[in-house]
Structures are given as C-alpha cells and as structure tokens.
Design a protein that fits this description.
99 residues; three-stranded antiparallel β-sheet
Length: 99
C-alpha cells in the first residue's frame, strides 16, 4: 500500500471523485470566498490564504453538474508554483487508490 497513491475523496452532487493527495495543499472548511463581480460562473471567487489571493473554481461548473447543496469546502490544489481552489459539496476521506 505504501507504493499506491492516496486520493482525497470529494463529493459533488451524488458523485464522488478522487484528487491525488500529492496535489492537495490543504482543505478549507467553510472558507470565506469573496465573489468577483463580472467573473464567469466557473469562478466562485477568491479566498485569502495567509496573505495570498487564491482563485476558487466551482467543481459543479467544471463537471457541468447540478449542485445539490451549497459548496461547503474549498480544496487548495498546487499547480506548479501556484495555488488554485476547488469548491466542492463535501470532503469525505483519504483513500489508497485502487490503481
């Protein structure tokens, strides 16, 4: 199991998805996201993470899925040297990938 990657299991609507833990910086539960006027629906807004302004995207819009409940968590992902937030309905647990 030590060689198999772990994934953070998130929920969007009635579906669950795995995000490689190696790309997850942290999870903000009930993070305060500030809307950006004129931003496309994909952009939920921005969040201040220890002085850094991070763009938060809506997973439901990326997946073209219905949002069951208001997104309650933001998963901060590392993309190269940048951070990006992903608004999800819920964060469930960490599991070892079946791959």
């Amino acid at each position: 199991d030590e060689m198999r990657p772990s994934v953070l299991v998130v929920e969007q609507g009635t579906s669950r998805y795995g995000i490689p833990v190696s790309q997850v910086r942290e999870v903000l539960r009930h993070g305060r996201v500030t809307r950006v006027p004129g931003a496309p629906s994909l952009v939920r807004g921005v969040v201040n993470v220890r002085g850094a302004v991070v763009t938060v995207l809506e997973l439901s819009v990326l997946l073209r899925a219905e949002r069951a409940v208001p997104s309650s968590s933001v998963v901060l992902l590392e993309h190269g040297s940048r951070l990006i937030g992903l608004a999800v309905d819920a964060v469930r647990d960490v599991r070892v990938s079946d791959d």
